[in-house]
What we know:
Blueprint: H1 18-34, E1 60-65, E2 71-73, E3 76-78, H2 80-93, E4 98-103, H3 109-121, E5 127-129
Parallel strand pairs: 1-4, 4-5
Antiparallel strand pairs: 1-2, 2-3
Helix pairs in contact: 2-3
Amino acid sequence: MKxxxxxxxxxDTGIDLTPMLDVIFIMLIFFIVTTTFVRESGIKINRPAAKxxxxxxxxxxxxxxxxxxxxxxxxxxxxxxELRGLIQKLKSENPEAAVIIQADRDxxxxxxxxxxxxxxxxxxxxxxxxxxxP
Length: 134
C-alpha cells in the first residue's frame, strides 16, 4: 500500500507592517500637536548690538519698530493706539509670555518708550528690548 503525501500549501511568510505604520502615524500626530510655533513680528529689523545681550528661550510676544516708525506685531502693521489691546489678547493666550520689542537701531527712541509703556499698561511685567551680540 502506497501512502501519498500531499504537500501542504505554502504559508504566506510576509511581515505585517500595519502595527509599525500605526506607531509611526501616532508619533507623527504627537510631534505635530506638541510643536510650538514661533510668532514673527512681520518685518526684518536691524537690531543694535549689545555685549550684554542674552538669548531668550521661552515663547514671547514680539513687537517690531521699523526705522520709518511703523509698528508690527504678529505679521500685521498696527498703530500705537492698538498695541495695548493686541498685547493683552496675546498675553491672555500665553500668560507666561514676555514682550520683546525689536526696535531698529535707526528707530525713534520716543516710539520705543511708548511701545514699552503700552506693553506695561497691558499688564506685562517682563518687557525687553532686543539686541544682538556683537
